[in-house]
Write a structure and sequence with these properties.
This protein has 7 helices and 19 strands. The chain is of the alpha/beta class. It folds into 2 domains: 180 residues, FAD/NAD(P)-binding domain (3-Layer(bba) Sandwich); 122 residues, FAD/NAD(P)-binding domain (3-Layer(bba) Sandwich). Strands 1, 2, 5, 6, 7, 8 and 19 form a 7-stranded mixed sheet that branches. Strands 10-17-11-12-13 form a 5-stranded parallel sheet. Strand 12, helix 6 and strand 13 form a beta-alpha-beta unit. Helix 1 runs parallel beside helix 2 and helix 5 runs parallel beside helix 6. It binds NADP nicotinamide-adenine-dinucleotide phosphate (NAP).
Length: 315
């Protein structure tokens, strides 16, 4: 049970979520004199807090650490006039104005809302997967593929993400082994054809990842144990990296029955925009994006949302 909120705070613009989308929305909104209030959630910073080196965010000649980048965004949002509160929102009511969000600490009312609650990569839950995460086990080929030049890597999964990651990784790796638990991919036919034609890709059907193996000092992946999903037989395969691509979960539990969501649980927005089905409520970042999922695209969507709110509030 959550505690009873201490008091109500009213703001013109409430931003829910403290990742790149939320902070960028806040920076634009604060500079437009909207005095935004941003609620970060209990683990501020989003997915970049568990990332090490970020080499693809523009503006950094050398890699920046994920948490460092998020701290810089936080500081910038605060310096330009955003009120930032750490709180856990438990319930929202967008059926009447002002909109309401109830947190553990406060109840927030707002004339407009931007939802930037993000998404989480799904993991298999293996102990060895956790142990080597960041040391050869990754959830993002675009982020980490570069570190596997001429190496052998595996991609676990059989959806669009897994196939796109595998194709992307062929630009870097010597060999890409796709491991799928069935004998058929779930994703688009065109990607399946590209996978079949690519000489660098080998598919191991009917197998799942049972264990990641590797060395200790320095920590590095050296192989994987695969288990046949039909016979239970296991085999060892030498690889330098493992990309887990079994889907993402958008953080939209709060908005079920409140906003229109798609079949995968992402918030639906009008084509080419960040407007939800409720006028005055906008959504930006990975909570609406299952295709690009980059810090820079999330930031771009956050910027769009702030500009749209400005137009909405002045209309
Ligand atoms: P997804 O479609 O849910 O696919 C997840 C894959 O991981 C499935 O092949 C599934 O196997 C496998 N999987 C799940 N749990 C597993 C486990 N515990 N062990 C082994 N394998 C497991 O996820 P996604 O590929 O991230 O795509 C999510 C949504 O985004 C989809 O609607 C997709 O079309 C969309 N998307 C679109 C694009 C694009 O348009 N370019 C790009 C990426 C994603 P099974 O097949 O056996 O269930």
């Amino acid at each position: 049970m959550s505690s009873v909120p201490a008091h109500t705070k009213h703001t013109k613009l409430l931003i829910i979520g403290g990742g790149p989308a939320g902070y960028t929305a806040a920076i634009y909104a604060a500079r437009a004199a909207m005095k935004p209030l941003l609620v970060t959630g209990l683990q501020p910073g989003g997915q970049l807090m568990t990332t090490t080196e970020v080499e693809n965010f523009p503006g950094f000649a050398h890699a920046v650490q994920g948490p460092e980048l998020m701290q810089a965004m936080y500081d910038q949002a605060k310096n330009v006039g955003t009120e930032i509160i750490t709180d856990h929102i438990n319930r929202v009511d967008f059926s009447k104005k002002p909109f309401t969000a109830v947190g553990d600490e406060h109840t927030y009312t707002a004339d407009a809302v931007i939802i930037c609650t993000g998404a989480q990569a799904k993991w298999l839950g293996l102990e060895s997967e956790i142990k080597f995460r960041g040391y050869g086990v990754s959830g993002c080929a675009t982020c980490d593929g570069f570190f596997f030049k001429n190496k052998v890597v595996a991609v676990i999964g059989g959806g669009n993400s897994a196939m796109e990651e595998a194709l992307y990784l062929t630009h870097h790796a010597r060999e890409v082994i796709v491991v799928h638990r069935r004998d058929q991919f779930r994703g688009e036919k065109i990607l399946q054809e590209r996978i079949a034609k690519n000489p660098k890709i080998r598919v191991i059907w009917h197998h799942e990842l049972a264990e990641v193996t590797g060395q200790e000092n320095p920590k590095a992946v050296q192989g994987m144990v695969l288990k046949n999903t039909q016979t239970g037989a296991t085999q060892n395969v030498a690889v330098d990296g493992i990309f887990v691509a079994i889907g993402h979960s958008p953080a939209t539990e709060l908005f079920k029955g409140v906003l229109d969501l798609d079949n995968d649980g992402y918030i639906k927005t009008a084509p080419g925009s960040v407007k939800t089905n409720v006028p005055g409520v906008f959504a930006a970042g990975d909570v609406i994006d299952k295709v690009y999922r980059q810090a820079v695209t999330a930031a771009g969507l956050g910027c769009m949302a702030a500009l749209d709110v400005e137009r909405y509030l002045s209309a």
